[in-house]
Design brief:
Helix content: 40-55%
Distance between the termini: 25 Å
Largest sheet: 7 strands, parallel
Structural class: alpha/beta
Strand order of the largest sheet: 3-4-2-7-8-1-11
Number of strands: 17
Oligomer: single chain
Strand content: 15-25%
Amino acid sequence: VAVVELAHFQAKGVRAIDHFGGVLLLADEMGLGKTIQVLAWLKKHPEQRPAIISAPAHLTHHWKDEAKEKFGLRTAVLSGLNAKPLDMSVTPSILIVSQDVLSTITKKLEGGKKKTYKGWADILKSVNPKVVIWDEAHNYKNRHAKRTKSLRKLAYSAPKRIAISGTPLTNRPADLWPTLNMLWPQHFPSFFSFALRYCKAVKMPWGWDYRGASHLGELHNRLKGLGMLRRLKANVLSELPPKRRTVIPIDIPMDEYNRVANDFVNWLQEKGKEATKAAKMTQLGYLKRIAAQAKMPAVIEWIDNYLESTEDKLAVYGIHKDIIRHGLYERYKKIAVLIDGDVPQGAHRQALVKRFQTDKRKRLFFGNLIAAGTGITIVAAPVLLTVELDWVPANHTQVEDRIHRIGQSKHTEMVYPVARGTIEELLCKIIQTKQKISSTVLDGVSQRTGDIDIFDQLVKQVTEQFKRQKASRTTQPTNGS
C-alpha cells in the first residue's frame, strides 16, 4: 500500500490533530496539502471509523482518488438525492458526501407540483460516525442555511471534528461562528454572545448589525489555544516542490456526452478504414468540447472558492471562445484581463499583461492556450487553472512556463480539472505519459515508455470506454450510493 511521504510541516499538521484530540480547524494557506494531512491522520487512526467527509461536489472524487492512490484507503462517494440507509457491513467506512446533498430539499416540478428529496445528514448521523470532516468550511458561513444546519446536526454526533479552509474567515467574524460552534460548541454556544464580543454588534432601528469586527487579537489567540493550525506558503517554502501538478476529477451530467460518444462510435463503425485522421480529430474535438462545457459549473465554483480563500491571483487557460471568453471572462471581467485570438498582437497585449501584473484589482488572467501560450510573463499568478486539454503536451508545458519562470516569487501549482468518464480523463493520462517521454529526452529522466500516436490511442480508448459504460448502464441497478 503506497503511503505518500509528508513534508515536515504536513507531518506536524497530523501531530497537531492528535494534540488537540481530533478537533481542529486546519486553516493552512491554499496549496499546502490540507487534504493530504487529514488523510494521513485517518490512515494513522483506523479506529476512527466510520469517518464522514463533506466536500464541494467538484472535490468529492479528488478526495476519493487521493485516499486510494496515496494512502490505500477505501472510500465511498455518496451521491444523488433521496438518501437511502447504508449497510456498513459492505460499505467502506470512510464516506464522502457532497455538501449539496446533505440537506433535504424541495424542488418544483413541471405543472407546479413539488417533490421533496431526502438529504444524507440523518442517514450519516445514524451510522454513529467517529469523526466528521468538512472541507471548504467557509461555505458554511450562513448559520441559517439548510446545509449549515444539516452539517451541524451531523458534526454534533461525532467526538472528533476537523474543519478545513484556507480562509475560514472570508469577510467578517460573524461568518466564522458556524464552524467554531460545530468544532467547540461549549466555547461558542451562542451566536449573539459571540457577535457582541467579536462582531462589534450594533443595535439598529431594524435590528442588530453584525457586520463589524472587534477584539480580533483575542479571538485569534483563543482559536490557536483551542486548535487552529495556520501556516503560510512563505513559512514553508523550503519544503515545497517548485512546481506541482494536481488533477481534479469532476463529475458531469453524462446524457449529452453519451449521446455524442454514441454518434462517434457509430460513425467510426460506418467509416471503418475510410475514416481519416483529420476526420477523427474533428469528431474527437467535438466530444472533448462537450466534456469541457459540462464541467463549467464546477470550474466556476472552483474559481469562486479560490478567490475567497486567497488574495493571490490566478491564471486560467482554455481553447474555445465560448468557454474562455463567453463562459468565464464575461462572468469575471471586472477583475480580469483576457488574451485570445481576437486580441491584437503587440503593444495592446503587453499592456494587458502589465495590467494583470501590476493592478491589484485584476486578479484573473484568462488566456487561450495558443494565442497566450508564448511570449508573455504572468508571474503575478502562482496558480494556473487549465480548463481544456490540448492534443499537444508541449502546449501545456509552454503555458505552465508563463507562471513558472524567473521572476516568480512563489512556488507554483498547475491545476487540471478533468471530467470523469470522458475523453478528458483518457487524454489527461496520455498527456502525462507524453510528458514522461519528453522528460526522458530533455532531462535524462528514466521512464520506460514508448511513443504514442495520440489520436489512434484516443479513438481506441474512447470506443472501449463508451462500450464499458453502456454495458454498465444496462446491467447495473441505479442506487443512491
